[in-house]
Automatic annotation (TrEMBL), chains A, B, C, D:
PANTHER family: L-THREONINE ALDOLASE-RELATED, LOW SPECIFICITY L-THREONINE ALDOLASE
Cofactor: pyridoxal 5'-phosphate
Molecular-function GO terms, alphabetical: transaminase activity
Keyword annotations: Aminotransferase, Pyridoxal phosphate, Transferase
Keyword Cell division: no
UniProt lineage: Bacteria, Bacillati, Bacillota, Clostridia, Lachnospirales
SUPFAM superfamilies assigned: PLP-dependent transferases
Keyword Transferase set for record: yes
Record protein name field: Aminotransferase class I/II-fold pyridoxal phosphate-dependent enzyme
Top-level taxon of the source organism: Bacteria
Record-stated family: Belongs to the threonine aldolase family.
Amino acid sequence: METNLEPQSGYGSDSYTESAKEKIRKVCECPQADVWFLTGGTQTNQNVIDAMLQPYEGVVAASTGHVSVHEAGAIEFTGHKVLTIPQHEGKIYAEELESYLRGFWEDTDHEHMVFPGMVYISHPTEYGTLYTRSELENISAICEAYDIPLYLDGARLGYGLMSDNTDVTLGVISSCCDVFYIGGTKVGALCGEAVVFTKDNTPKHFLTHIKQHGALLAKGRLLGIQFDTLFTDDLYFLLGRHAIDMSELMKNGLKERGVPFYIDSPTNQQFLLLTNEQAERLKRQVLFSTWERPDEMHTVIRLATSWATTEENVQKLLQVFDEIM
Amino acid sequence: METNLEPQSGYGSDSYTESAKEKIRKVCECPQADVWFLTGGTQTNQNVIDAMLQPYEGVVAASTGHVSVHEAGAIEFTGHKVLTIPQHEGKIYAEELESYLRGFWEDTDHEHMVFPGMVYISHPTEYGTLYTRSELENISAICEAYDIPLYLDGARLGYGLMSDNTDVTLGVISSCCDVFYIGGTKVGALCGEAVVFTKDNTPKHFLTHIKQHGALLAKGRLLGIQFDTLFTDDLYFLLGRHAIDMSELMKNGLKERGVPFYIDSPTNQQFLLLTNEQAERLKRQVLFSTWERPDEMHTVIRLATSWATTEENVQKLLQVFDEIM
Amino acid sequence: METNLEPQSGYGSDSYTESAKEKIRKVCECPQADVWFLTGGTQTNQNVIDAMLQPYEGVVAASTGHVSVHEAGAIEFTGHKVLTIPQHEGKIYAEELESYLRGFWEDTDHEHMVFPGMVYISHPTEYGTLYTRSELENISAICEAYDIPLYLDGARLGYGLMSDNTDVTLGVISSCCDVFYIGGTKVGALCGEAVVFTKDNTPKHFLTHIKQHGALLAKGRLLGIQFDTLFTDDLYFLLGRHAIDMSELMKNGLKERGVPFYIDSPTNQQFLLLTNEQAERLKRQVLFSTWERPDEMHTVIRLATSWATTEENVQKLLQVFDEIM
Amino acid sequence: METNLEPQSGYGSDSYTESAKEKIRKVCECPQADVWFLTGGTQTNQNVIDAMLQPYEGVVAASTGHVSVHEAGAIEFTGHKVLTIPQHEGKIYAEELESYLRGFWEDTDHEHMVFPGMVYISHPTEYGTLYTRSELENISAICEAYDIPLYLDGARLGYGLMSDNTDVTLGVISSCCDVFYIGGTKVGALCGEAVVFTKDNTPKHFLTHIKQHGALLAKGRLLGIQFDTLFTDDLYFLLGRHAIDMSELMKNGLKERGVPFYIDSPTNQQFLLLTNEQAERLKRQVLFSTWERPDEMHTVIRLATSWATTEENVQKLLQVFDEIM
């Protein structure tokens, strides 16, 4: 609001956006990084993937990857297939990736198939899990061996970076990935994701590409100002840390109450294994996402804390569990 | 900012968005209108046109239409052709539209051509001109006769509605058009355009369509709150009126100084016919858009006022003209 | 060649094409069928699927379905996702299909996902297996319950219809499927596939759609004449039967020699489970497709007979197996 | 028919196709040419243009170009805009092309527009007219200066090469164009067009691209055999010459009868300017294409001769004109 009357040039060429880019380059320890701002996660995946792939290529992803399941076909809309490989609590394994790529190139029929042109991972994954630094490095090495870029979807990156159980930093990500994005929306921004190209590899005429995809924001400063703020005085990390603290509080409280967990997640998303009856009782008091049904009797539900979750929120939730378990 | 900590459901299902929709239905005198919010103009054109057309159809537009020239091919990106007909100071003529449509259907070869499936007009046009109520009604009648929807791009609608020389109101537009949008970005919003379907004709699963196009905003309230504010206490109209007042001031000042106009525009965009030398001298002091070169010696430039233009801005500009003419 | 100088109208409106359509309607016991001719299998899948789906829909297929794996992304090229469900020797199970569709509609998040808009099956499948009449009817009933069309890819249909082990006829297929195609290329045609819409459900302006997809043949008679010939004096069935006879001869010969089969296929494609050494030795004398590697030591290879396979061909192949086993 | 039982590998890797390619390289005086075969003209334009353009680029064409008007939006279907410039009896002028390209790059707003990435011309044009060698060279030089490929649509090329009034040979075309195609369908082939890349510039993985577009013919020999035949003993040129002879006969006969011509076409397409009454009378006896209506009283009709037109056909037509004029 304060800058609304200040004349600034449009489409991301304003001074706030420039400042945000500089701060991101610094925090990523990647001085050559080329930073762009888009409005939302699906839009970012669609723009980055379509711009990096050749028309005859697809993107390799875990079968549970957001691009594969929850983006209404935004990748296919641009003409590209999502090539799925097995997931393990949301993650892909380097050796399975390697085996998939090797199999493709060995297949004498591969000219009749979709070429794997990029690898997509999310960190944290859709199951709240995290790659280790060494896992990332292994995946990165395979991508390099097959000469295809590695792309990391960081919609919830702040919650991953601030987990207690991680050796992955923005610097590690910048050196392992060809491109990734730092999610703003999920850590408190009104909207906005920061795309980082790390290897002088920005697609040619990327601005025109963004415009063609209907994703170019006229008043780019709206994104620039927010990221400039998020990367001032560590705000981005403090917001992330807060969600982790609240998640740990919730997790411990639930464990004390004997609630079984479906997955051991070190971030802000927790997956509980409830009986259908428990889930039914919970639904009357709490809004949650039903994740999957592992069998006829049980339901896996997801609970997520965020930058905005208060201790009071968590305590209230635990009281509800006292009643329903 | 005030509502940021307030829990609200996402993707446009929050209470602010609901309130904005209700206000727009009222101001459009169209109780059955279905209102949606998107972030920018090109995105809106892309989403509406692609959703309303059959895959084998294209959209008819003036050769100078924004969708035809200045959207980096966003319409073609979705597989649809922009079918151009002649423009007259940015407008299309009802009789030429009729002749085009008739010609298509009479052509024995038309099954090998792109079917005209929609008509696109902008109001104000890219040349700042306005349709009259009767012109709109004529175009609307032709669309009805050929059973194709009429779509009005209102990126600058606020500046058209508040012009001194118009009998077109939101009510008139709602009754003439099958769908149109009320631009927010160009009248002071951070971002946001309001799409209005007027005839119970929202495309099926439009939310999924928007998501697929990468255009679904997670925190939809960002758009809802802005439009709720714009349509409270006539703010939208006051902002529009202000730009018109400033435009008139500028226009009169320029006319007094003998500056020739290329087009007689009743809105906030003015097109001046300068000699190349004048344009060159102006460039040193003023940022403007070069519009076209009618001949080797002359340059048409565009000057636009807005909700944010001050009287002081205009006076300063006129002083510059005192020097360069 | 005989008709080349005979003037006929183009794009499939000639008298040979008309005659072929009539014969196909008869042999399918489907007087209301609307028949179209296209040149190849991938082209047919692309045109039919894209024309039958809404833009926000995808096609459900077995994970091994031809559209999913071996068409270079031709379906995704048109903007649609292939939604895969488990395969069982190339087939899908009605109950798993039902569970998938139910799961989609029960998912509270499904508006953010690709809508299942069609079911694709191949018959024979990519593994040479066949659906039974009752399996087809069950799948058909589920499609009807969920109000989505069932599409059968009959690239190798002739070889399925003439198998000894089938109760599926063209009449059964016509009554179970909303649309299917009868493959010409794989039973001896130079090119050509016959698409059959069985329920007055031809997509609107399908000719224009085909033209837009670059698939409209100017001299449509090239396809019409071939199908007219194939459905004269049971030629289509005789060619299919011949391949089955040759396949049985080959199968029995291989079994006598103790060659293990990977799948029990009743049609013209046979899948052998060889050791890697055997496969290596075979490769020196026979051209075959390597299908998959079930483990480190073994290779599954595919051998296919056709309308053109001779008894001598089979005997020679068996002699090679005498040497390599 | 003779080769149908001969085993040959598929997808254009057979020996007939190889022989046809070699003959085309020779007749084009272009030893490095890479030749591909596709089935039809629209399919060829779609595949070549989509493969040569970057996603943010469009193709420049005359407003009357086949790709612009008569291909049901096949180019836009692949996401690319057809950027039209003025036509002059179907041709584009080098200076207008240059002015268009210069204007694009000088426009400060061009990053919000579709980049011109290729130039499309047809020869003969849709009006039967021909470029001269020097016109082709000028257009070619401009394309080179702007670093974009020149593509020539030769659907009717045989009729252009054999015109009495041309200095354009296949060698000239090969040296001026980056890619062009030699039409087979319109000179007597059942189907088939030969695409020639002249400058070691075949798009990467073009076979996969063709497959993805549904345009890969399984039995590629069907195309190879026809072109091998067409380029044996000058058959292609003799067929072309025959149509020109018949066209001249028709033209002279019509001129003797005082029939006015709309355009002076040196090839097999002739455009007559009839009164509406004459056109009406003609329609009762002759099947023709109505081309355009220059005014309320007149109709331009097209008459085309071909490889199959006989002298008797022409004489009969002239007799009809004796009656109707």
